[in-house]
Amino acid sequence: MTSLDDLAGVGVDRRGGFARHGFTGVDLELRAWFTAEARRRGLGVETDRNGNVWAWWGEPGEGAVVTGSHLDSVPGGGAFDGPLGVVAALNAVDLLRGRGFAPAKPLAVVVFVEEEGGRFGSACLGSRLLTGSIAPEEALALKDPDGNALAEAVRACGVDPGGLGRDEEALRRIGTFVELHVEQGRGLVDLGAPVGVASSILAHGRWRFRFRGEGNHAGATPMADRRDPMLAAAATVLAARTAATGGARATVGRLLPVPGGTNVIAAAVDLWLDARAHDTARTRAVVHTVTEAATRAARDEGCTVEVTEESYGDTVHFDPALRDDLAATLGGVPALPTGAGHDAGVLAAHTRTAMLFVRNPTGVSHAPEEFAEPADCAAGTEALADVLAHLAR
Ligand code: GLV
Ligand code: MN
Ligand code: MN
Ligand code: MN
After folding, report:
1. For 180-203, what is each residue's pLDDT tens digit?
2. Which atom of ligand 1 sits closest to the CA of residue 115?
3. ipTM given for this complex
4. Relative to the CA of 340, which ligand 1 atom is closest?
5. What are phi and psi of 380, to 5 degrees?
6. Using a 6 Å cutoff on CB, does residue 85 contact ligand 1?
7. EC class of this enzyme (predicted)?
């Protein structure tokens, strides 16, 4: 909790919560904090080709037991999503040392960059670059909302944009990855358990809808003469709600009218759809339904719409043998699914991967109300230490 308190002043979002985004000045502060905490523990710190930071207990090597998470947040994010996994990892190292444990395998704590995609719009950027799940050319085409190119942003953080991409050496080094994370729902509350293991992650992705109409005067333009892209965007928001049936989820959390003036009919509107479901077919069906509704609404208003997929990840089923092994190691903790995306979900397609969840009494996440009791954070850290000891013996 002291470590989370240390971070409480970093990247404060003046609207509430935190705004900690990848490859920014705030990111540099978070990296500096992590580096100092790791070095204080005698861990060897290095940054990989994609800007992810690694802290090694002993010599870096292949087949390591790796734990960690991310330090970035969504806009207005909570204090736990990401940082809890990093702080727990550092504290688990302390616990293991206190127990006199010496790992028989290399052990590392990793901080993945830009997990939330809060700046460049592409989720799990650091882990997807590392695994090759996103091509470097695609990443290098990304711009933040102010038009800053990813290449410049990574360079400012000491990362060579020419080196971005699948990192075979880093991948070979990961024998097993375990990410601890605050739960982002009420699953563990309902089960009455402080800690659980992850079973699966919903398929999920992000799509940008770009509506174009005619910018004009709010007072001088008769209603019948308008081509207002905001109308089509509004219909799309409503369509997302009705399309997400049978356990699917569809959200429009971000909408940008251009130029954005109270007395201006927008010339264009960008809108982002986040859609998730138990499998790819269902997720794509939701997006298809919303796209059809958007196309109809745009046509009715004399506007156009263009839809671009910004990122997508298929359903993740975590390695059942590892999941059961870890649950048993922890005395039979429950396994539960999640609708939230994680770097662990990206790594699961490439290496043996598991996740631990810590109970969140509010059930809220991606908002300042996100929480975990100190006692549950401690239980999670103990569980992580037990799991690391089990895997690294
Ligand atoms: C990340 O937390 C996501 O699920 O979007
Ligand atoms: Mn998150
Ligand atoms: Mn997270
Ligand atoms: Mn005027």
Report:
1. 999 999 999 999 999 999 999 999
2. 1
3. 0.92
4. 4
5. -65, -40
6. no
7. hydrolase
